[in-house]
Design brief:
Shape of chain A: elongated
Largest interface: A-B, 53 and 71 residues
CATH class of the largest domain in chain B: Mainly Alpha
CATH topology of the largest domain in chain B: Arc Repressor Mutant, subunit A
Order of helices and strands of chain A: HHHHHHHEEEEEEEEE
Shape of chain B: globular
Radius of gyration of chain B: 17 Å
Largest sheet of chain A: 5 strands, antiparallel
Strand order of the largest sheet of chain A: 6-3-2-1-9
Strand content of chain A: 15-25%
Helix content of chain A: 40-55%
CATH superfamily of the largest domain in chain B: Winged helix-like DNA-binding domain superfamily/Winged helix DNA-binding domain
CATH architecture of the largest domain in chain B: Orthogonal Bundle
Number of helices of chain A: 7
Number of strands of chain A: 9
Oligomer: heterodimer
Number of domains of chain B: 2
Chain lengths: 243, 190
């Protein structure tokens, strides 16, 4: 514990409350954080003030965290994780949390409803699609969960990525299609998407599709991501389920 | 300190520190929605708030090994980290500063009702049930105008200048009210 905090405990205590309220000026805040880093007592005081005040914000009407947010966090963790041995241990656990994720399942239910409507419509109007889909995913926009794409596979060993509406691709950019199953170290690219076209992928060239497999489209340079990993913003994201 | 909810915030942070990703996802399921609520209230911008909650979980993951029992409330630690990110993100957004005094005061009054009627519901979220109940009591002792200053700062993340403009009082008055309110709360909580 540093000497300064012992000399002026009351003043620091006052600052701890103000720090939690967020009412310190940027300079005071920086100075306080320097002290904070050195003092267990001050950190404890800050956490205690925070815990007290939390009882107020616990009364705010909760906003549901969207499913793509947890997928995004998992993706960022993937990037952080360098050791594959750890990933193996974790896979089973994250898989369990997937089954318990109410928000995700609500999202999937909604997406399936939309999919049923869309497929019903398409079957009547568009060229024959693959019969008897065995595996599907609906990719939604992260911001508003509007379904943008459907992925489906059938016994013909083809996976199709079908746009549900007009696709906007910024000039000089491309949409790149990615997938990542539980336990994979990094996503793999399934190719670039061209405006207004259905992307067909030979699934024999891919590892077996799994439940909960993540699919996403990101905006990348025209020739695709130079790093071989998604770098641009996610335009659509979803997870696959077997039919 | 273990939680009275049965959710072990401290244990989850310790597991995160050991690289157990499942622990972080447990914390996500327990707190993501409330964290997003708190951040949204401050930033009033949904995409930015989601970015902040994302960054918060990554930072929790990276910094979990700096948390230990002596630092007290693990839930407080999680929120301090997240609220700091939200307050920093204010630089990147222009939000509306609104008064909403009834809403803010109700936020506290409702809790009195909620804790009286459903003792196992809202207040059990807190690490220390008794301490939370007493903050409630202590807030009641503040004059409404001063209490509002504290609530604007904590709940809305408003600066003292913004609060001064909002309630049409000199900045010095607001500063002094907040300082004295914190002193009164501290004394009352002891």
């Amino acid at each position: 514990m540093n000497k300064k905090t012992q000399k002026t405990p009351d003043i620091d205590e006052d600052l701890a409350g103000q720090y939690v309220l967020g009412t310190l000026s940027p300079e005071e805040r920086n100075a306080f954080e320097l002290q904070l880093a050195d003092s267990v007592e001050l950190q404890k005081s800050v956490n205690q003030w925070q815990n007290h005040f939390l009882s107020i914000t616990d009364n705010l009407a909760p906003i549901a965290a969207p499913q793509p947010l947890s997928a995004r966090i998992e993706r960022s963790l993937d990037e952080l994780e360098k050791q594959p041995t750890q990933t193996e241990k974790i896979t089973a656990n994250t898989f369990t949390s997937f089954w318990q994720n109410l928000v995700l399942w609500r999202g999937i239910s909604m997406a399936c409803l939309v999919l049923a409507m869309v497929l019903g419509f398409k079957l009547q109007t568009v060229e024959p699609m693959l019969s008897e889909p065995t595996y599907i995913a609906v990719l939604v926009q992260p911001e508003n969960k509007t379904p943008g794409w459907v992925i489906q596979t059938s016994h013909t060993n083809q996976m199709q990525l079908v746009p549900l509406g007009a696709v906007e691709i910024p000039e000089g950019k491309a949409l790149q299609f990615w997938t990542k199953a539980e336990g994979w170290d990094a996503p793999i690219s399934l190719g670039l998407v061209k405006k207004g076209e259905t992307l067909n992928i030979d699934i024999n060239k891919l590892p077996a599709l799994t439940e909960n497999q993540l699919f996403e489209l990101t905006i990348e340079d025209e020739m695709g991501s130079s790093t071989g990993k998604p770098t641009g913003p996610i335009t659509s994201i979803g997870r696959g389920i077997s039919m | 300190m273990s939680s009275s909810t049965g959710f072990d915030y401290e244990g989850v942070l310790q597991h995160c520190a050991k690289g157990d990703r499942h622990a972080l996802m447990q914390l996500y399921e327990q707190e993501a929605s409330r964290l997003l609520t708190v951040v949204m209230r401050i930033l009033k911008n949904r995409p930015l708030s989601e970015d902040v909650v994302h960054d918060a979980f990554i930072k929790i993951w990276k910094k979990a090994d700096t948390y230990h029992q002596e630092l007290g409330s693990a839930r407080g630690w999680v929120y301090t980290l997240t609220r700091n990110l939200a307050l920093n993100a204010l630089k990147h957004t222009h939000r509306q500063v609104l008064a909403e005094p009834d809403f803010l005061l109700d936020l506290c009054d409702n809790q009195v009702l909620a804790s009286a009627e459903q003792p196992d519901n809202m207040t059990e979220l807190a690490d220390d049930h008794l301490a939370q109940a007493s903050l409630q009591t202590c807030l009641e002792h503040l004059e409404p105008e001063r209490k509002l200053c504290v609530l604007h700062a904590y709940v809305d993340g408003y600066t003292q200048q913004e609060i001064a403009t909002l309630i049409d009082k000199p900045l010095g008055t607001v500063k002094s009210w907040i300082k004295r309110s914190l002193n009164a709360l501290k004394e009352c909580l002891q």
